[in-house]
Structure formats: C-alpha cells, structure tokens
Design a protein that fits this description.
The protein has 319 residues and is an alpha+beta fold. The chain contains 9 helices and 10 strands. Helix 4 packs antiparallel against helix 5, helix 4 runs parallel beside helix 9 and helix 5 packs antiparallel against helix 9. The longest helix has 22 residues. The relative contact order is 0.16.
Length: 319
C-alpha cells in the first residue's frame, strides 16, 4: 500500500501536556485542552494549560504548511521580539522559558516536524469596539509598541510584510487556485491590488514621510487578539503574523478587523486619539492607511484560498 500524505494533524491534549510538563518548570499536574480553530489547515493550534497551582498558560503548536513559508528563524524572531516588548513593560502575552532557557520546542507530527511555544495567559475579556476608552488605550499601546520597537534589532531573519508578501504572492496563489469560472473575480481582485499598490508606492516614495514608518509590527492587531482586565488594562496576544512592515498597514489591519470605518465616527476618533497621543502620523502615512486596507483584503483572500486542506469553524471547547 502506498504511503498517504497528512494535510494536518491535531496533537492529543494529554500528549502535549506530558511534553510540556517535561520541558517547563510548571507545577504538576498539567492539564491541557484544545481551544481554537479546529478545522482550518493554515491556522495554528492553541491549547489552554492549567497547572496544579491553578496558573493558566496558552500553548501554540505552529503549522508547518507552505502558506507563510516559515522557517525556524521566523518563530524565533516572534518570540525574541515579544521578550523585547516585555522588557519595556509593554502589555503582551510573553513566551515562557523552557528548562534549558530556550523558548521554542519541536515535536514530530504525522505531517512532519512542528514547532511549539508556551505563552503567558492574557487575563480579562475581549475588547469591545464600541467602548471608546478601550479604543483609546488600544491605540496608544499599539503606538507604544511601534515606537519602542524602533530600538529592536533581531538576530533572527523574518519574512517582511512588503508588497511582494502582500500582493505578488497573494495574486500568484489566487491564479493557481481559482479556476476558469472565477476569472472575472480574479480580474477584479488584480485591478484592486494594482491600484492600491500604485497608491502606496507613490506615498512611500514621497519626500514627506514619517521617519519610522517601517519597522517591527504586529501584523494582525485585532479586537479578538487583546483582552482587557477588570482594571481596564489591555494585554495583546497572538503575534504569529508579526515582522518587519509598514506601521500604516498595522493600523489598516485593525480598522478593517474592527470594522471601525462603518461604525460611529467617535469610535475611530477614540482609536486615533490614543495612537496620536504617542506617535503622530505624517499626512502621507495617514493617507496610506486606505490602500493598505485594500491590500489587507487582497492578502486575506489569497491566504484563505486553498485547493488542498481543511476549512471549518472557530470554536471554544467547554471547560
């Protein structure tokens, strides 16, 4: 019988708990539960861990697919940057060190080697995009992350979120995966992408610019990727899409995810007031936000376009 190829597997929670218990200084017993995005091949798997002294952590088992062309250095960049942000007292769910002082582990899954990491648990509840105080704090902390990261220099290489990443590779994937019956859709997406790319190129080549418009960014600032605790303080998590990129793209990603431009104007004003309180934008950087929103849509369309793999529903398992 010929060998079959595994598109994706799920690590049994009890097996992952045993592995983590052996690699980390945690109070036994360690209990583990799969908590998110079960049937989406391109997504990472997340597990909630509870220890014998009732501490909580989140374990992420990274996918090894070719959607993002990841290498070990990409994961190390993420973990190192989060440690840097934590050292500057920024509210991020930081990685937890293993017994040997490293932050990245590996395991052998049926589809091949997969990396994993353990993170501090973000206490609180998901932010409300209709809460102007939370929006202000979100904006100010995002700006702090951008500003502080100007000092960050990584020893690890990481995929940059440049126009090749956002546009060229996304359109190439759509051309591969969309058949003849979707050629009209493809033409529309290509036209949108080319127009937005031209606008961005004109803006970033303009003499008026923000000196730190490019640098480490979160890549996926999203209302579901931050928790606010009972004191109204945020903790950001899920930086899997971080890397070098345009700060205006980070802002565009959040505005699109929160649908703020279709809500009350006071909501987006609260966000921008918070952001500008730390890091004002130049005129052309602000103008780049709109075409970056278009490119975010293009990237998402390409990212979720697959001819091979599983797609399903996000869920939260019962406790």
């Amino acid at each position: 019988m010929s060998a079959i190829r595994i598109a994706r597997s799920f690590i049994a929670p009890d097996s992952l708990a045993e592995l983590i218990q052996a690699d980390y200084a945690l109070t036994e017993p360690v209990r583990c539960q799969l908590i998110s995005k079960m049937l989406r091949t391109q997504d990472n798997d997340h597990y909630l861990l509870k220890t014998g002294d009732e501490q909580q952590f989140v374990a992420r088992v990274y996918q090894n697919g070719d959607q993002l062309h990841r290498q070990e250095s990409d994961y190390l960049y993420e973990l190192d940057w989060l440690q840097f942000l934590r050292s500057h007292q920024l509210p991020v769910a930081h990685p937890i060190a293993r017994f040997d002082g490293s932050y990245l582990g590996t395991l052998q899954a049926p589809e091949g080697k997969r990396h994993y990491a353990l993170f501090d648990y973000a206490e609180g509840a998901t932010m409300s995009v209709s809460n102007e105080e939370q929006l202000y704090h979100f904006g100010s902390k995002m700006a702090e992350i951008h500003a502080v990261s100007n000092q960050y220099s990584s020893p690890y290489s990481r995929q940059a979120m440049d126009l090749n990443f956002l546009v060229d590779r996304s359109l190439a994937r759509l051309r591969r995966n969309w058949g003849k019956e979707r050629q009209d859709d493809l033409a529309m997406v290509v036209e949108m992408a080319e127009q937005a790319q031209s606008e961005i190129e004109a803006l970033i080549n303009n003499q008026e610019h923000t000196p730190d418009s490019w640098g480490p960014i979160g890549g996926d600032f999203h209302p579901n990727n931050v928790h606010f605790n009972k004191n109204g303080q945020p903790t950001f998590f899920n930086f899997d899409l971080c890397g070098p990129g345009w700060r205006a793209y980070d802002i565009a990603t959040f505005l699109l995810a929160a649908n703020l431009l279709h809500e009350r104007p006071t909501y987006s004003e609260a966000f921008f007031a918070g952001y500008y309180s730390v890091r004002p934008l130049s005129k052309n950087e602000h103008q780049a936000i709109s075409p970056f929103m278009t490119l975010r849509r293009v990237w998402l369309t390409g990212y979720f376009s697959r001819t091979d793999g599983l797609m399903g529903h996000t869920f939260l398992a019962s406790a």
